[in-house]
Amino acid sequence: MKKILFVLLALFFLIIASYQIIRHQYAPIYHGTVNISGLESEVEVYFDDFGIPHIYAANPTDAYLALGFVHAQDRLFQMEMMRRVGSGTLAELLGEDLLDVDKFFRTLGIPKHAAWSTELWLNEGDSPWKDAANAYIAGVNQFIHEGKLPIEYTLLGTKPREFTIQDVHSIIGYMSFTFAMAMKTDPLITKMHRTLDPAYLEVLSIHTLPEHHVIPNHYPDRNSETNELNIKETLTALLEKLPVPLLEGSNSWVVAPSRTASGEVLFLNDTHIGFAQPSVWYEAHIEYPGFSFYGNHLAGVPFGLVGHTRTHSVGLTMFENDDQDFFEEHLNPTNTNQTIYNEGYAEINSRTEQIPVKGSEPISFKIRESIHGPIMNEVIPEIGRLTSNPVASWWVYILEPTKALEATYKLSHSSSIQEVEEAVKLIHAPGLNVMYGDKSGNIAWWAAAKLPIRPEHVNSKVFLDGRSSRDEPKGWMPFEENPMSINPPSGFVASANNQPDTLANGVFFPGYYYPGDRWDRIAKTISSRTDWNLENIKSLQLEAINENHPINAKSMIDVVDPLLFEGFEAIYGALKSWDGSHDLESIAPTLYYKWLYHTLHGMMVDEIGQEDFENFLRTFLYIRSVPNLIRSTDSPWWDNQGTETIETRTEIIEEALKKSLNELKAQLGSNSSKWHWEKVVILEHPHPLGAKKPLDKIFNVKAPAVKANEESVNKLAFDLNGSGVYHVKSGPAMRIIIDFANVEASESVLPTGQSGNLFSPFYSDQTEMFALGQYRPQLMNESMIRNSSKRKLVLKQINVN
Fold first, then answer.
1. Which is catalytic among the residues 250, 252, 635, 712?
2. If residue 618 lies in a helix (H) or strand (E), which one and from where to where?
3. Is 74 part of any known ligand binding site?
4. How many domains does the chain have?
5. Contacts of 322 (CB under 8 A, 6+ apart)
6. Residue 250 is among the residues annotated as catalytic for this protein
7. pLDDT in tens, 20-51
8. Is 322 annotated to bind ligand?
9. Which residues form the active site (predicted)?
10. 414 and 490 share a domain?
11. In which domain, by residue range, is 18 found?
12. Domain boundary residue among 372, 397, 422?
């Protein structure tokens, strides 16, 4: 026994010692001195209790060089993944399993567009944003050459190449694509349009319905000559392979002084993004003479997309506008390198790209482009199965080079609402709702996008006819006619991915908007009082209630025989009295979502098949259409096409209920009072290497159960399915609250932690806080930061003498 005990103790200490050696080799450096080249002066970086760097520099070049260095030491592998997705080079690092993803992004044109944007960037003259971006990239490369590379590179047997401005543009291109809902939706709607009776599509909410909640516009007075503000300072399977998350939605609202306890603006933002480890946003606080900014940064992008100074704050949600159309081309019968166009023919241009593949020879890949854009049949299986004709993607983003770097730099460096609007105008795609509040009491919302003017007859959700110019956009709307609201009389602006109200021409701009359940809860709640502050507003940001679900549930309960609930009285009563909350101890959601799945499955699979049904559940169309689908009594969807009899709504819903109750009984036991929501909800933040077992046990971050839901303000989304287990896929990527009465008291939280380095103490330290709805400070007070920080890193310039 003594020998065994000795061996076990020796083994224990050996493991501890080995871990410490490995940790020392790979962990980030948060204190001490580092010598790097390119600095003009010494830079001090204080890391707070959550690993957020507070950078104090003498000038902007030093500040952004330091940001690049510390950003890389915490997030270099995330930067690697992001740039490789956007440049179509994932297979080079991760192997041939990612080859289809590379082919997709190359065909879509993001690498080509990044090269174009880079060429124009390099030919532009000097500018503050160009100098800052170059300094940031230099800082990243300093770490690549001099720092301790994260362990992922060792496991993959590779080292990173230098970072470039083209990598930055590749990342921006990828993040722009993540908003492109059209690729997931339009092929499915086109198939329904071509194969089903129009009565089927009338039940779906392909376009905005009268009962949906819209964002009201409030256009400002403008100088008639200059248009200046007159305000005084006032594809589903392929995408599942991606090792980086997709942007999916967001909430933001800004409350005017008339509705706050402090008499100052109250600003909130929570961007909804696919959960991953590390999470998307990297927080950093930068100080140099004349500039003080606390921002949320994307990996590899030098300027914070969301952030605040001491005088103004900028946030984002997805506009969800339709900026991508698909044109079905028809080939010249005598020349397959031409398409029929107007009275003649248009050439198909081709190029061949070499895709590097780990462990193999490069793959030659041919990309073809028609007059309308790249042909997508080969890389989007749904298109290839739908038609043999070439289908081209017309996408606003690739039509002109991006100015995202200039825009984001100016958003953080602006000194007035007028300057912020000028920066917003530079964003041509993807469509964003830019939210704004300032110390002067101004609040604003702009829909930032270059909006095409489509012919009146065009339905942008179905494939258009490429044989003529008849379906093509006829021009662009002026920015001043975009949806927006500047200092509205309501005392707040809010956006939650729902439809903006009609434009100046009296029409809704088409898009992939959500029905507005979240927006309605936000608007009603904000309007209910005038004493909002940093503390009492949290209950709204953390709210997990959807008012529509109980109405759906009641409509289903009302048509079934109550005797079907015999033995399940607890769940019957809970569902009948449900208020739409998703508390962990609630039992109503446990039955509602399973019952909803089986009902929709019974309605739709016979018409569109299992594969397209699963695709339907992953589009905006599902969220928007459920109320109509479930509540309509005479819908053709109710009849099962596989039987001779005509099924009724009651029959389908009752059969779905029987199946749901039996499955839940087998899964959770016969006592339905114990079918608690927390028992069927799982949240795990996946790391790119976590897709391979047993690395998931090492790199992935498991979280406590959360109040998973569809379309509550605190949206924690999952894929509807019949298993009865719901893996939360996305949610708030941060939760920010700022009261301009005391900007230094602002708060936020991240889903996991600040660092993506496995050996950092900040790898997952916010996970439980996030799940429990807790917040932590966004520090900006210099004396507090210097006095409380336990970690200080000094960056010194290398003495060339």
1. 250
2. none
3. no
4. 4
5. 182, 460, 461, 509, 510, 511, 512
6. yes
7. 678 778 899 999 999 999 999 999 999 999 99
8. yes
9. 250 (nucleophile)
10. yes
11. 2-178+785-797
12. 397
